[in-house]
UniProtKB/TrEMBL annotation, chain A:
It comes from Pseudonocardia humida. PANTHER family: PHOSPHATE TRANSPORT SYSTEM PERMEASE PROTEIN PSTA. The keyword Amino-acid biosynthesis does not apply. It is a multi-pass membrane protein. The gene is pstA. This is Phosphate transport system permease protein PstA.
From TrEMBL, chain B:
It comes from the Bacteria. This is Phosphate ABC transporter ATP-binding protein. The keyword ATP-binding applies. GO terms for molecular function: ATP binding. The lineage of its organism: Bacteria, Bacillati, Actinomycetota, Actinomycetes, Pseudonocardiales.
Length: 365, 259
């Protein structure tokens, strides 16, 4: 459409009399330091006002500053830059504040655990159990080993079951009633409170071994009840995103379905599956309630999950804090260090998941 | 290698929906047969029924029969996996296996089926298949690189090499050039001309010039309306279909008056 026809037949609401330059021109712009200046101004005003009234508190100060900053910047920006830019600035402030708000508890937890736990984060903590220890010294070696053994057992049970369930759901059962009900119950299981899983495992083993049974293996069963749905979900999503074309390519070469799944579908998605499984392990390794019920606590080393109680890091931390000896301080210190070790393990697992994803990912070029 | 295909009163269903009705078609050995027709007319469905690939979709089934040199592919004792080893397929979008190198992609049919081969026999097969697909000179120095790093046209030729490496009797191609540029298309078309020395080729295409260029015989599929089954309207030598078809619908389609 040429400019002339545009003038003779004005079909749009656009003001055709205005030249193009002024239609696309910027209205005005705040200087680059405008945002920082507005924030500083808001902080000074609020700080001054709060100090004058004598009701200064850091929480109130931050909250009011952010509110004044948002309102003030909106007003200034609207006057200088127009409504669209002003709305953009306000939304930017809102999402940034939400992000910082979400970060506060995270940083607070990490900082508290780190500063309290570092005191006993020493060689002795990693080399000695609590057998015969009263007061200072001792460590969480037995709890670390217990956590690793029980979680490894849980993973050994959950990964095959979860993986095969996901393969059934994606490759064999699409659209069938069985698959739909499995998906439904997996979703329900994802929401099971962990204490219920612990009670289930305890009740199950009480049937065989009588009431009062405490067993590392029972804890592993409880954890795998929690872990299986997570593994199923993660694996299912990963298998679903394998392009159907690859399956068809294998079928067209006369490859049977089970070989196609084993050698094409799973290798293609192994990166996602592996990291999903690692995250599922990280999810259950810190579970306390089921282990409290099904495994209990002990002061000594026990490498045998089929024979009696085992200590685990979360339960060790819980008991050290809830039922300390006298003097109290060494017990509390050990509880913090146990929490710190747990966080480090989870962090290592997360890093491992990323590394695995990168190692296994299909390479281009 | 290079066998005849005979479809007799073939109806193809998806569940209770009749997708293709009453196809009778004879495909001669070592010829190129093009299937043309508007979208949704069932030509791809028919093509996939030849190597029983349509069965991948739950609820798909056929009535009637397809015979490969007189053997009914839908007979009681026939394994669809065995059928697909005899009748290879190349798809619309190039789909090399992303986890495998170029070398492994070519012998994927053997590797995935755990066929044990000596190293020199494998090397030989890879070279022969890649030469057969006109790709050897372009990739011989980077056989260990992933197949997904090649260009679209090279990937499609890699898929053809992979299909001919299992030494099938028939090669089905489902719009093999629709995702490719004209130069890659030309490379594939030249390749089709060479491959018909050894294989029976059936190709689905939306490009009528391509059908005219590469095929010896052409079948025209049509559909009367949505929800109706697709039917084979007419099949004859390509020259005849494009110059003097017997059916009005065929003439309208090849002359571009509809579809």
């Amino acid at each position: 459409m040429s400019i002339e026809t545009d003038k003779t037949t004005p079909q749009h609401d656009v003001d055709v009399a205005t030249p193009l330059e002024s239609r696309i021109a910027r209205k005005g712009q705040l200087p680059r330091w405008g945002t920082a200046a507005a924030l500083a101004g808001a902080a000074v005003i609020i700080g001054g006002a709060l100090a004058a009234t004598g009701a200064f508190s850091i929480g109130l100060f931050v909250f009011l500053t952010v509110v004044l900053f948002a309102v003030g910047l909106y007003a200034i920006s609207r006057a200088v830059e127009g409504g669209r830019k002003a709305a953009d600035r306000v939304v930017t402030i809102v999402v940034t504040s939400a992000f910082l708000l979400a970060l506060i508890p995270l940083i607070s937890v990490v900082w508290t655990v780190l500063s309290n736990g570092v005191a006993r984060f020493d060689a002795e903590f990693f080399s000695s159990s609590m057998r015969g220890v009263v007061g200072e010294g001792g460590g969480g070696y037995h709890a670390i080993m217990g956590t690793l053994i029980i979680t490894a057992l849980a993973a050994a049970m959950s990964i095959p079951v979860g993986l095969l369930t996901a393969v059934y759901l994606v490759e064999y059962g699409v659209g069938t009633r069985l698959a739909r009900s499995i998906t439904f119950f997996v979703d329900v299981m994802t929401g099971i409170p962990s204490i219920v899983a612990g009670l289930f495992a305890y009740a199950l083993f009480a049937l065989f071994a009588g009431p009062g049974v405490r067993l590392g293996f029972a804890g592993a069963v409880a954890l795998s009840v929690l872990m299986i749905p997570v593994v199923v979900r993660a694996t299912e999503e990963m298998l679903k995103i394998v392009p159907n074309e690859l399956r068809e390519a294998a079928f067209a070469l006369g490859v049977p379905k089970w070989r196609t799944i084993l050698k094409v579908v799973i290798p293609t998605s192994i990166a996602g599956i592996a990291s999903g499984i690692t995250l599922a392990i990280a999810r259950v390794i810190g579970e306390t309630a089921p282990l409290l019920i099904a495994v209990g606590i002990t002061t000594g080393l026990n490498f045998n999950p089929f024979d009696g109680r085992q200590a685990t890091l979360p339960v060790f931390a819980y008991y050290s804090y809830a039922a300390p000896g006298v003097p109290r301080d060494p017990y509390v210190d050990r509880a913090w260090t146990a929490a710190l070790v747990l966080i480090v393990i989870v962090m290592v697992l997360n890093l491992a998941a990323r590394l695995i994803a990168r190692l296994f990912a299909p390479k281009n070029r | 290698m290079g066998k005849a295909i005979e479809a007799i009163d073939l109806d193809i269903y998806y569940g209770s929906f009749l997708a293709v009705q009453g196809v009778n078609m004879t495909i001669r050995p070592k010829t190129v047969t093009a299937l043309i027709g508007p979208s949704g007319c069932g030509k791809s469905t028919y093509l996939r029924s030849i190597n029983r690939m349509h069965e991948v979709i739950p609820g798909a089934r056929v009535e009637g029969s397809i015979e490969l040199d007189g053997t009914d592919l839908y007979g009681a004792g026939v394994d669809p996996v065995g059928v697909r080893r005899q009748i290879g397929m190349v798809f619309q979008r190039p789909n090399p296996f992303p986890t495998m190198s170029i070398y492994d992609n070519v012998i994927a049919g053997q590797r995935l089926n755990n066929k044990r081969m000596r190293k020199d026999a494998t090397d030989d097969l890879v070279e022969r298949s890649l030469r057969g697909a006109n790709l050897w000179n372009e990739v011989k120095d980077r056989l260990e690189k992933p197949g997904s790093g090649l260009s679209g046209g090279q990937q499609q030729r890699l898929c053809i090499a992979r299909a001919i490496a299992v030494q099938p009797d028939v090669l089905l191609m489902d719009e093999p050039c629709s995702a490719l540029d004209p130069i890659s298309t030309l490379a594939i078309e030249d390749l089709i001309n060479e491959l018909k020395m050894d294989y029976t080729i059936v190709i689905v295409t939306h490009n009528m010039q391509q059908a005219a260029r590469v095929s010896d015989y052409t079948g025209f599929f049509n559909i009367e309306g949505t929800g109706k089954p697709g039917k084979l309207v007419e099949m004859d030598e390509t020259k005849k279909i494009f110059s003097q078809p017997t059916q009005k619908a065929t003439e309208d389609y090849v002359s571009g008056r509809f579809g």
